[in-house]
Structures are given as structure tokens and as C-alpha cells.
Specification:
The chain is α/β, with parallel strands linked by helices. It is built from ten helices and 19 strands. The longest helix is centred in the N-terminal third of the chain and has 21 residues. The C terminus is likely disordered.
Length: about 325
């Protein structure tokens, strides 16, 4: 099977955790154990699955932005690094950690390759006027006002109800420029890490041919859906820091969805900047390919693939899981 697996930035550094290298490594190793199990499966002596791994970077890129802004404030003439460069820095850092921890668990013959991925966006995307993508740590209102003082930053909720975070522009991905490289690496049998942090946002230059970076953070899930769709993947797995998709999250009548369809999800509302982009990405992929998508917990990736964990999203209510586990259509939306 051809699998595209997305790991959320908040799953790699949970909202309740201190932003330390030790916590990051602990979470990466939990994910690596699951991924290595799937990547190690063999079919007639060959890997049973082709795997592309993407990952978020919201908490990490926000921390780098804080460090860059602090340095600029203390050094006359210095300027904060633009978000596209910070996106690239974080994609390199997280790609390295994921590559190393996964490779440590695989046979030496199985290559793991991390690829910096430029993603084209539209210069006229309305998202540039309305920041919605949460990055960095969570603050109280008092802390948020202090951090944003003197800076052109927008602070707002991230949909979790746990506080405020910096919000930045999140234009929609228009084209993944590395698709040929991703396909080529997959063709060699490599496990490919790509689209880190939603990719590095670039746009067409107005003063000549070529591309230039742009101040934004692309949503990782929407970029992942584009990669999965273009690869004609058999399954899209979105691993996050919650165990499933819920209706009325955090409210009376909260209800878990075990199995659903794009049609049912279209009638529901989810928190922007949190579960909404994950649901949208899953729906885009399922509607475009007719294949299955799953949203669920980081430490149950293997169970999600087997149909035993997370929220399973099928093109229609009567679909059955290819892995041999039939899911009853009567369970849809409870």
C-alpha cells in the first residue's frame, strides 16, 4: 500500500509540555516506534508499504520566531528572520530528528530521506489579510499582551480552549514543487519525509521569473492532502494529540466519531486552526481518490491503519476496510 502519514506539530510537542529537546525526542521516538513497525512489514521480501511522512511545526516555528524577535530587539540594526526561512529551519530540524529515530529502528537496507519541500501559494490569497494559523506556545491574556507589545502580531485562540497563541497567515497550498523528487525517492524504496510544517511557502516573483519566499505558515494537513492526492495514496493517516474526531468538543454532549463520511462531516462544525483543517484535509483526499483517511492519536498509528483506532473516514457508509477489518456502517456518527 502507498501510505501518507501526517504527524501534527502539537503531537510532537504537546500543549501541556515544556518546549524542550528531551520532550520533543520522547514524542518523536513514540511516533518512530509506530512508523518503524509499519515500514518493516514485508510482502514477498519487499516492503509492504511505500510511506511518505509529513509533519507539523506550529509550536516549534513559533518558538524560533520568538527567539529571532528577541535577538532583533536587543541588537540595533538586526531584523527578525522571515517566516519562510524559519519554516525551512524547523523542517530541517524536525526532519533530521524523525529521520534519525526512524532509521535507528529499521534495517540498514531501508533508506529514510528527509526533503525540504517548497510549496507555491497564491500572492492574492485572502489568508494574507486574516491570520488564522496558531504558532508558538500558549499564553494567558496578560502574557499574550506582553509578548505582542510593540510587534505587529495577532494573538488569538487555537480552538483548544487552552489559551492564546500567535496567529499568522496561512495561505492554501497551490502546488507542491517537490512532487517529482518525492516520487523518485519512493521509487528507490525510501521512506520519505516531506512537506515539513506544510512546506516552505513561496510565490511567483513579480519582477522576473522564479520564486521568492513569503511570510506565512502553510497548514500541514492541507499540504499533506495535496501530496497524498497527487501520489494516489491508498490511505491518508493524520496523527495528532487527540484520540479521534469529536462532535461538540469540550461541550456538553461531546461525542466521538468512530466512522464517518465526507457528507456527514460537511454538516458538522469544527474549531478553526485545530481540528477543522484536519477534517478538511481528510475530506479533500477521500472525495478526490475514493480511498480511506483516518484521524487519531500519535501512539496508535498502527491501530489506525488496521481500522482499530481513530476516526475512520470512507467515501461512502458501506465501505469496508481493505486490511480485512469490516467497520459497521451503523456506527457512523454514533
Amino acid at each position: 500500500m502507498k501510505l501518507v502519514i501526517a504527524i501534527g506539530g502539537n503531537a510532537l510537542l504537546r500543549r501541556s509540555q515544556a518546549p524542550s529537546a528531551a520532550n520533543l525526542l520522547d514524542n518523536v521516538r513514540r511516533a518512530a516506534a509506530q512508523l518503524a513497525t509499519i515500514a518493516s512489514l514485508q510482502d514477498s521480501g519487499q516492503p509492504a508499504h511505500q510511506i511518505v511522512l509529513t509533519h507539523g511545526s506550529g509550536p516549534q516555528v513559533g518558538l524560533l520566531a520568538l527567539q529571532s524577535a528577541a535577538y532583533a530587539a536587543q541588537n540595533p540594526g538586526a531584523q527578525s528572520e522571515p517566516l519562510d526561512m524559519l519554516d525551512a529551519e524547523v523542517a530541517g530540524m524536525l526532519g533530521y530528528v524523525l529521520e534519525q529515530e526512524i532509521a535507528n529502528l529499521l534495517p540498514a537496507t531501508r533508506t529514510v530521506a528527509s526533503l525540504l519541500t517548497r510549496v507555491e501559494v497564491d500572492r492574492l490569497d485572502p489568508a494574507f489579510k486574516t491570520p488564522t494559523k496558531p504558532i508558538g506556545p500558549t499564553y494567558t491574556r496578560e502574557q499574550a499582551d506582553k509578548v505582542a507589545a510593540g510587534r505587529p502580531w495577532t494573538m488569538g485562540g487555537d480552538g483548544s480552549g487552552s489559551g492564546l497563541r500567535r496567529l499568522v497567515a496561512s495561505p492554501r497550498p497551490a502546488r507542491v514543487l517537490a512532487m517529482h523528487a518525492i516520487r523518485s525517492l519512493l521509487g528507490t524504496g525510501a521512506l520519505v519525509i516531506a512537506g515539513g510544517g506544510g512546506g516552505i511557502p513561496v510565490m511567483r516573483r513579480t519582477d522576473g521569473p522564479g520564486m521568492e519566499g513569503v511570510e506565512a505558515v502553510i497548514d500541514k494537513d492541507l499540504c499533506t492532502a495535496m501530496i497524498a492526492t497527487e501520489l494516489h495514496a491508498d490511505c491518508l493517516i493524520i496523527a495528532t494529540d487527540v484520540d479521534a474526531v469529536y462532535v461538540n468538543w469540550g461541550q456538553p454532549g461531546q461525542r466521538r466519531l468512530d466512522q464517518t463520511t465526507p457528507q456527514e462531516l460537511a454538516r458538522l462544525t469544527f474549531a478553526p486552526g485545530s481540528m477543522a483543517p484536519k477534517v478538511e484535509a481528510a475530506v479533500i483526499f477521500v472525495k478526490a481518490t475514493g480511498k480511506r483517511a483516518v484521524i487519531g492519536p500519535l501512539d496508535q498509528i498502527e491501530g489506525m491503519l488496521a481500522g482499530q483506532a481513530g476516526t475512520q473516514i470512507f467515501a461512502d457508509a458501506g465501505a469496508e476496510l481493505i486490511a480485512g477489518h469490516s467497520l459497521s456502517s451503523s456506527s457512523i456518527l454514533g
